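Quarterly update from the structural biology core.
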Amino acid sequence: MDTKRIKQIVSSPKEIEVTYNGVSVWIDQIHENGELATVHLRRSLEERSEVNIAELKEEIR
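Predicted structure, tokenized:
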């Protein structure tokens, strides 16, 4: 996924499903370098990870 689309998802009032390695995640923050984002599992607010945005996928229903 690209940085522009991630910014749209983060600022959207709609709930848009995003996955990382097949697991549903929330995007918490996009890093200034535009390559990494901080995400957490939808079911666990405590476990946060920094991931490459290219590995995030928008799930279209």
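The helical segments are 3-11.
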